[in-house]
């Protein structure tokens, strides 16, 4: 049963909220009492999510996180519309194709870093400014990946960017703790989102089949909703003393020896 009060009175900004993990988080945060601003570049999808919710407590705002001015304006829009900013879920990101390091396109690399690292830095910067100014003991959550812990779990540029994101989370945690602001990451295993399906050129069912075959925890298929539930925990007061953590939603994938077999 959904606890309607877990985020009651809180305002959440979710980047990349028009699809995948961000969409599920937007719906879940709304179900749990939050006012939600979806920020994305997928305008049609974002508006469709808002329309399907049929609730005045959720709205859409176009925002390209690689453009700091758009990020700053989106934070200001959120505060003006709902009165504060309590939760940032910095979820927007790109994956890019799987290619050899020997053939790396450095222009594509720069674009990945601009969105996955610079974009996250911009969202943290401006969200934290708002929280500090408003004396909000807020929560900032970033979507990392199992690729932030190990190599070979994603494209090279994506892996580098996610490692950098965890470092960004840790240094932000160091400074913002003095203001009562918590900063954490969620790091999922493979999820059949539009992002991953496009990157691997596979249908959702194929992505899930591959992940189930290689994953450590059997008997469950990881869904975007599971990652959103982890983000909900980090957004809520249930994690009031949790900061600086990279919460793996990976069924133990990054901590086990995959060459070991008990049989």
From TrEMBL:
Any GO MF annotation of the entry: oxidoreductase activity, acting on the CH-OH group of donors, NAD or NADP as acceptor
Pfam (any one): adh_short_C2
Top-level taxon of the source organism: Eukaryota
Transmembrane segments: none
Family statement: Belongs to the short-chain dehydrogenases/reductases (SDR) family.
Record PANTHER family: SHORT-CHAIN DEHYDROGENASE REDUCTASE (PTHR42820), SHORT-CHAIN DEHYDROGENASE REDUCTASE 3B (PTHR42820:SF16)
Protein name: Short-chain dehydrogenase reductase 3b-like
